[in-house]
Write a structure and sequence with these properties.
alpha+beta; 401 residues; 6-stranded antiparallel beta barrel; single chain; Helix Hairpins; conserved putative lor/sdh protein from methanococcus maripaludis s2 fold; 5 helices
Length: 401
């Protein structure tokens, strides 16, 4: 401690205490001074924390202000006014069309099979060959049947000889008259009758053998074009083996299936518009056949559509067919999006006095974007085109106004 500090401290002690003894005074004079150090203080971070608190308060006030402004603008506690698109109902021409896909088929076609078993021998008709009725398409090896025919013919020849002998014996007995007994004449007559019957039997066997021989030649049952050939020369075939598919290409139709949902509405004579794959033309046609029964496995009703004019096209080609089921000069229709289906039936919404008004309607259900409305709407009604999310009596306004 500096000397002046010691003097001042000694003077202070003298003011408030008795004079110290010599030892006390000596100790005070030689004592080390206490260091003048302040108590530890934490770092001053309170200024930074205060700054963040100010920023957080400012951001919260900003968000609260924006939310208040949005609530005041939208006022969600009030009923919303929906903007809707409408159209004025007006009757007009309506065509109800059922679009289906089908394939070209020959009206008359047949799968050719053999009526006897055997081995095919060349030549055979080729796919694409145009044949007439009765033309030979293929032959089976008929060696054994030829032998059967010769055997039958030989038996017939032998029977003819026996018949001639029986006739000669009868004629001779008859010519002798009273010189032969009655029994001899009757025996000769009976022998001739047996010979005649045997000849008839043998002739039938010959006819049968010759007819059987014809089955070894497979002929065309109709005139047409060979679409497919499923066999080759040398192949052994039986009665179930398909040999050829033969079709009359002069009369083609479109074969298709209609879902059973519309089975009662498809009738023969309905017009149709046809378009062949790869052909931009639209061809006229007419429903020529409707099956009397629905296929239980597929749920489809077989339908055939005939071309109004003869066409040349490959069998199996895909065809788009639009069957015109109904045509009306003046009918009311509505888009499918405007129709609501519920347990109580079908309905639409019309715009009346700035509100959506539910109106029950009757429609013809059909696979189309617009459906024919049979009752419930009238000309001049303002039909709301999209009924999704609407409620009866809800405030609405025309979108864009």
């Amino acid at each position: 401690m500096p000397k002046n500090h010691q003097i001042e401290l000694t003077a202070e002690l003298e003011k408030f205490s008795d004079p110290p003894s010599d030892e006390r005074q000596n100790a005070l004079l030689h004592a080390k001074p206490y260091p003048l150090v302040s108590s530890p203080v934490k770092p001053a971070i309170h200024a930074k924390s205060s700054s963040w608190r100010h920023w957080g308060l400012w951001i919260g006030l900003t968000i609260a202000g924006g939310l208040s402004a949005w609530l005041l603008y939208t006022q969600p506690w009030h009923a919303s006014v929906a903007g809707v698109a409408v159209e004025v109902v007006a009757p007009g021409p309506i065509t109800r069309v059922l679009a289906v896909n089908g394939r070209i088929a020959a009206l008359h076609s047949v799968a050719v099979k053999s009526t006897v078993a055997g081995t095919l021998v060349p030549p055979l008709a080729e796919e694409g060959d145009v044949v007439e009725q009765g033309d030979v398409l293929a032959r089976l090896d008929d060696t054994s049947q030829q032998a059967a025919v010769r055997q039958a013919v030989a038996a017939l020849d032998q029977g003819s000889v026996a018949q001639q002998q029986a006739r000669y014996a009868f004629d001779r007995a008859k010519a002798l008259g009273g010189n032969v007994s009655r029994v001899t004449l009757e025996d000769a007559s009976n022998a001739l009758n047996r010979a005649d019957h045997e000849i008839s039997r043998l002739r039938a066997l010959v006819d049968q053998a010759q007819f059987q021989l014809t089955k070894f030649s497979i002929v065309a049952p109709i005139a047409g074009t060979i679409l497919t050939r499923g066999v080759e020369p040398g192949q052994v075939v039986d009665l179930s083996t398909p040999l050829f598919t033969l079709a009359d290409m002069r009369e083609l139709v479109v074969e298709t299936d209609v879902d059973e949902s519309y089975a009662n509405q498809i009738k023969p004579g309905m017009p149709a518009l046809l378009q062949l794959t790869g052909d931009p033309r639209t061809l006229d046609g007419r429903v020529s056949f409707v099956a009397p029964a629905v296929d239980a496995d597929t749920g489809g009703l077989a339908v055939k559509i005939a071309f109004s004019e003869s066409q040349l096209a490959p069998v199996g080609l895909t065809v788009t067919a639009n069957i015109i089921v109904d045509q009306r000069d003046a009918a009311i229709s509505a888009p499918r999006s405007a129709i609501v289906t519920s347990g109580s039936g079908q309905s639409v919404f019309v715009l009346a006095d700035a509100k959506a008004k539910r109106v029950p309607v009757g429609v013809i259900d059909w696979p189309a974007d617009r459906l024919v409305v049979t009752e419930g709407l009238k000309a001049g009604d303002r039909l709301i085109l999209d009924a999704n999310g609407l409620a009866d009596g809800q405030d609405v306004t025309v979108a864009g106004q």
